């Protein structure tokens, strides 16, 4: 039987998983990341809390229905509350401002594994969610990794071909995965999705770049572009305004704002979530969502501003240890993806921090949020050695080098159909350096088992 490295290399020769965007992470390797010889294993702790939720990583298995319920409640709140519409519509053109009917095949939270803490006599969760993604980026990689580990004998958290079955049941038989120039680094991964996952059994999907040769005559479009690109890419604007195809995800940027994770901490809306989710669900999401406020809405932050500052700008006056907060462009903007538009207040130099705060506090067309910084726990993960330096690292029992890494789990929870909240794709990204836990050439990618 081939090992997972051989299978991923064969697949990468046909479909490059992704192109490295930053020069410092450039690599000549066919596989642009490190691979672990085995999937990441989630630990079980079995500690009960109120309601039906359980502490420990196994919460991740049952998290999906709760997140889908939260997302549904955000939609209902948007459609019924003018204040929420004013916030989430900010900076968006009129054709995006409507009573929304969002349709998202997946909710993909960025789950960062964290220490299990004892606080106020209670055990806190072993992960947190820094944002919820709805885009297809990473989905092809999840399928590539899961299939390879399944084919080498591992029983992963997602059964082989589960993603394919879900998409065949949830999308029209013909369509196009439409990729913008900004997202071209993911094009081969999207092509793999179209060829191997969306297509088959009489279905025909393709991946196309959005340019003047793009065919508008298609039944459905799986959107691999950001809706704010209408301001920077004329081809994207023409497609959005000119196509009558069914879109996945829907053209509803309001629900792609990071600001939605701040709503349960907003005094005008927290009772709505408490009433509709019940005490157990409400308190659980407030535990796994780091506290956050929307810039300009500081007086409504239910937990109280840090060190009694009155505005976001006041973070600049705090010492480093008291300003462990992250300033983020919320979503509908040029710098709201791939770690851009993010400033870590406790590590930034004062000039950088002051510039970021001024931009956030004076913006009238882009939402900003300020979210509590939480660090991930380090776990020891092994990988296939590629260099002499790798072989100098500590080894596991099989002789593979290991690193102490932070872990981001990408779990794709189904958001339509009979089994809402079910995991239909997954993978883990493991990083030993820096604050960001993102895919890069020195990160370790792997599937997930329990």
Q: How would you sum up the global shape?
A: globular
Q: Count all strands and give the number.
A: 21
Q: Compute the CA-based radius of gyration.
A: 22 Å
**Helix/strand/pairing class, anyone?**
alpha/beta
Average of per-residue pLDDT values: 88
Percent of residues in beta strands?
15-25%
What is the CA–CA distance across the termini?
23 Å
Helices and strands, in N-to-C order? Answer: HEEEEHHEEEEHHEHEEHEHEEEHEEEEEE
Uncertain segments of ≥5 residues (pLDDT<50)?
Answer: 46-55
Helical segment tally?
9
Report the major sheet. Answer: 7 strands, mixed
How would you explain this protein's 3D organization?
- This protein is α/β, with parallel strands linked by helices and 450 residues long.
- Among the domains are: 20-152 and 254-290 and 396-450, no CATH class; 292-372, no CATH class.
- It contains 9 helices and 21 strands.
- It has helices spanning 4-14, 59-80, 82-88, 139-151, 162-170, 187-198, 234-242, 270-288, 350-362; strands at 34-35, 40-41, 47-48, 54-55, 106-113, 118-119, 122-123, 127-133, 174-179, 204-209, 220-224, 246-248, 292-294, 325-329, 342-344, 368-372, 379-382, 402-414, 423-431, 444-446, 448-449.
- The strands form 6 sheets. Strands 1, 5, 8, 17, 18, 19 and 20 form a 7-stranded mixed β-sheet that branches.
- α7 (234-242) links the parallel β11 (220-224) and β12.
- α1 packs across α4 (139-151).
- It is globular.
């Amino acid at each position: 039987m081939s090992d997972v490295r051989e299978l991923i290399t064969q697949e990468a020769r046909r479909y490059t998983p992704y192109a490295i965007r930053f020069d410092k992470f450039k690599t000549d390797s066919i596989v642009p990341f490190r691979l672990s010889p085995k999937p990441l294993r989630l630990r079980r702790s079995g500690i009960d809390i109120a309601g039906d939720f359980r502490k420990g990583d196994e919460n991740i298995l049952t998290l999906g229905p709760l997140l889908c319920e939260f997302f549904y409640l955000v939609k209902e709140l948007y459609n019924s509350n003018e204040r929420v519409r004013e916030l989430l519509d900010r900076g968006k053109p009129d054709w995006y401002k409507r009573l929304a009917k969002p349709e998202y095949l997946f909710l993909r939270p960025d789950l960062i594994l964290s220490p299990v803490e004892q606080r106020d006599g209670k055990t806190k969760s072993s992960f947190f969610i820094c944002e919820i993604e709805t885009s297809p980026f990473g989905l092809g990689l999840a399928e590539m990794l899961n299939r390879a580990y399944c084919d080498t004998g591992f029983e992963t958290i997602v059964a082989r071909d589960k993603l394919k079955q879900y998409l065949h049941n949830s999308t029209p038989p013909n369509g196009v995965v439409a990729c913008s120039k900004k997202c071209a680094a993911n094009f081969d991964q999207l092509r793999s999705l179209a060829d191997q996952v969306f297509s088959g059994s009489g279905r025909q999907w393709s991946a196309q770049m959005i340019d003047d040769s793009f065919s508008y005559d298609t039944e459905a479009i799986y959107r691999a572009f950001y809706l704010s690109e209408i301001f920077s890419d004329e081809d994207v604007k023409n497609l959005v305004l000119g196509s009558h195809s069914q879109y996945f995800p829907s053209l509803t940027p309001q629900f792609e704002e990071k600001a939605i994770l701040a709503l349960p901490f907003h005094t005008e809306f927290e009772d709505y979530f408490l009433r509709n989710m019940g005490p157990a669900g409400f308190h659980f999401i407030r535990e796994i969502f780091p506290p956050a406020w929307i810039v300009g809405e500081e007086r409504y932050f239910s937990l109280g501003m840090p060190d009694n500052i009155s505005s976001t700008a006041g973070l600049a006056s705090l010492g480093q240890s008291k300003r462990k907060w992250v300033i983020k462009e919320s979503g509908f903007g040029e710098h709201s993806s791939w770690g851009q538009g993010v400033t870590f207040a406790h590590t930034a130099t004062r000039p950088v921090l002051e510039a970021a705060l001024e931009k956030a506090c004076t913006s009238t067309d882009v939402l900003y949020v300020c979210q509590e910084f939480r660090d991930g726990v380090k776990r020891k993960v092994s990988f296939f050695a590629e260099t002499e330096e790798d072989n100098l690292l500590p080894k596991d029992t099989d002789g593979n080098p290991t690193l102490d890494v932070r872990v981001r789990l990408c779990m794709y929870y189904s958001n339509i159909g009979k089994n809402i909240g079910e995991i239909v794709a997954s993978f883990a990204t493991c990083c030993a350096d820096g604050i960001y836990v993102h895919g890069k050439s020195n990160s370790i990618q792997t599937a997930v088992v329990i």
